[in-house]
Amino acid sequence: MKPFVHLHLHTEYSLLDGMAKIKSAVKKAKALGMPAIAMTDHGNMYGAVAFYNACDSAGIKPIIGTEFYVCDDLTKKEKVKNDDGEGYKDRRHLVLLAKDETGYKNLSLLNAIAFRDGFYFKPRIDLPTLAKHSEGLVCLSACLGGDIPQAILRHDNEKAEKLVLWFKEVFKDDFYLELQNHGLEDQAYVNQQLRYYAQKFDVKTVVTNDVHYINKDDAETQDVLMCVQTGRNVDDPDRMKMPNDEFYFKSYDELATVFPNDLDALDRTVEIAEKCNFNFVFGKYKFPHYIPSNGKTPMEYIRDLIDEGVKEKYGEETKEIRDRIEMELGVIEKQGFIEYYLIVWDYINAARSMGISVGPGRGSGAGSIVAYLINITDIDPLKYGLYFERFLNSQFIKLTPVEFVTFITAGVSYAACG
Predict the structure, then answer these.
(1) Which residues face 139 on adjacent strands?
(2) Residues 348, 370: Cα–Cα separation, whole Å
């Protein structure tokens, strides 16, 4: 059996729609010898970590993606009916897959924008927003609900061609026209046009199956799930439902049977999978970078703040004060927390400037003279004999990630906000 990769798959995190449970999908992919598998839930990335871990445990490459809802203008919150009175014109589908860390960040950002700025019944993005955050992403034209298939079905070839050219310009060689065949008449017509555009505009095609459940006989259960989502009864002939039972996790041979003349598009799934190499890194702290406004390095900047603090708090610097400062700075720098201190200083300073009440400090973070001198805390650790080592020391790296986060939060953030 030749290798094939499912690039359009809805897990249980496509809420009340997807029935391809992550563990079952990974198990099926493993059984069929698939080298990779993608997760493309509707409008969200809720299952990204669980999906990644399941794939990693099974020795299968995970591809993180989303099937986005796309509108004309994400700032407009108006209900727009289709010509047949059902659904929304202003909510088309589009599949995006993360190639690398940049792609994952853009995927996450687009999801955030969709929920924060574009939410109207569903989280939405628009094409101008997508163009700004397209780096590191593979784009597939999606199912019949996609922009290009919808234009084709309206016989608006001018619009369809403009869209193909737009996506090609934005994504270059990472844009693919998606062929699907679930035995639907509309799909046969759309596929014909997509093949024509592929040849005319030198864009590659790729075969996907719009996976919503694992096995063919799961279709009935998925139908019940859709009824729960839409508040309809299974006996209602007008309910929203899949048109047949072909939306399952198919093998290469099953798809080759319905795409006998598109075997290159089946093979292209592996090509796309090879492009996608994003991996989560667990157990490593990734604090935001702090960039001082005056062009100095973080260390130079924090030393300036410390020197100002010494004059303000002590008047004169003694050997005891200087030795304590240098000891703490040595540990803080070694553990990579200089910028972390500056970030906390920044938001504490901002809070005070806005008249927001800030506590004097509590917990082990109050034992840091650096925190005291830059006004994160108001407690003099020398006066009260407080030990910096309770908060941070050269052996701190031995703590587990959970212990570290708990300790650092209790020590500084809570100390600052009281």
Answers:
(1) 96, 175
(2) 14
